[in-house]
TrEMBL record, chains A, B:
Family matches, as NCBIfam families: PRK05463.1
Enzyme class: lyase
Record EC number: 4.2.1.-
This protein's UniProt keywords: Lyase
UniProt xrefs under Pfam families: D-Glu_cyclase
Family: Belongs to the D-glutamate cyclase family.
Entry's transmembrane regions: none
Organism of provenance: Marinomonas balearica
Record protein name field: Putative hydro-lyase DFP79_2167
Domain of life the protein comes from: Bacteria
């Protein structure tokens, strides 16, 4: 099976059939992939408020219309959120319980689906412009760091931003800021560059998540709000029940990346 | 005379009448002010090419339709370029000859007018967004530096970029990049930030033109291509004759700044 030529709906069906179990990086080029958070209805309103107050780490791309819905119509044809993501993580009272390839057995009629934008979309735009995206050129996961930048709290949800980092020369960073500004629903423009300590990062060579990447002479670290932020916030809020995607194993949508561009 | 309430055409008439001889900083809020270069027709084609190849330091806002014209229709009503700028500098064979308040006596029927965008427009947009523009808050001329960033040569014109510098915290610099990207015809986005040595600046506290400004803890210098670049290039090319505005003494146009926004 040549995964590269499959459309988003074909990829989701392959995932549903258990034929595709790996991470989704590099698949469905040109289409939006989403971070996933699934919460009981009694936690959903607070989380929705949290996303609206913190659009850079939590850019909402879609939300299910009614509790219990297994699809978000605008995100894809023939979508079954219970089986169309390669790997899920299940949490109870904030504790990680298990990683599974299908959550049909765990589904409840009070669950609300939140789909959040992911950096794959803006990385594609940076590459298309000829910029080097270090985690891609080095074939590793992007380095991510906890920071001291507080999110705006909403109900039971609060915490600090997690950021992803890509090193660039200043002129490339300026271009990256321009490119990413067009895509507010996939984290938008960077939120910091330069001195890591200014946002509470002690050691740039020891990321809290993902892998370290090379920072060359003349480059500065550039920091984007990261989709891991809501996962960290969810762990702290300890909702009674929660399903997320497993890192890198995203929901592939039918939305073209270009559809997210505001300009 | 309350200069603050005068319209662009009223200000030009006051300048023409000799009632206003100072610099134009802060006047005609909301309207484009221009750097000026006036050259004989046999030098004009090379300079036009130079501007087109180097739009960041030399953003063309207007050019006279025919040699000898004393106006650029799209820049202003009742405009006489020979008298409507408060102070001019005259060069012969690249040598500065004199500073005058009127060039009517020096006018020739082979002269071509080039009006280039100026940083006043983007500084106004930065201030409107609540950002601190240090040279304005400290009431001094913006610091400017020669760099090692080569312009693209065109005919007899070549040289390196001059940059202006405004220190900012990284998050403000990111916002400034977004704001200035909307205004390519007033120098557009910055071309560098951070390490001055990377672009050939030896001492950030000793600008080559203008005044030094305070750089606070946590701020980085942010560098924009500067309208002094064409003046330096003109000095090197040594055209037989040339008229420029005197620094800070700009041509006030009828164009609203917002008209220059590409987005």
């Amino acid at each position: 099976m040549n995964l590269q030529i499959l459309s988003p709906v074909e990829l989701r069906r392959a995932i549903r059939a258990g034929e595709l179990k790996g991470n989704t990086s590099g698949l469905a080029q040109g289409f939006v992939q989403c971070n996933l958070a699934i919460l009981p209805a009694d936690w959903a309103n607070d989380f929705l408020k949290f996303c609206q107050l913190n659009p850079k780490p939590c850019p909402l791309v879609g939300i299910s219309a009614q509790p219990g819905d297994i699809a978000i119509a605008e995100l894809g044809e023939d979508l079954d959120i219970r089986s169309d993501v390669p790997k899920y993580r299940i949490f109870k009272d904030g504790e990680f319980v298990e990683e599974v390839q299908d959550v049909t057995q765990h589904w409840r009629d009070d669950l609300v689906i939140f789909a959040l934008g992911c950096s794959f979309s803006f990385e594609e735009a940076l590459l298309a412009d000829g910029l080097d995206v270090r985690n891609i050129s080095e074939g590793v996961n992007v380095p991510m760091y906890r920071t001291n930048i507080e999110c705006k709290p909403a109900g039971r949800f609060s915490g600090t931003n997690v950021v992803s980092m890509r090193p660039m020369k200043p002129a490339d960073a300026i271009r990256a800021i321009q490119i990413c500004s067009r895509f507010p629903s996939v984290h938008g423009a960077p939120i910091h560059f330069g001195d890591p300590a200014a946002i509470g990062i002690e050691d740039i060579h020891s990321p809290d998540f993902g892998d370290a990447v090379t920072i060359n002479e003349g480059e500065v670290p550039v920091f984007w709000a990261c989709g891991v932020t809501p996962q960290v916030v969810l762990e702290q809020a300890k909702p009674s029940f929660c399903i997320t995607h497993s890192p890198g194993h995203m929901l592939i949508s039918d939305l073209p990346n270009s559809r997210l561009a505001v300009l």
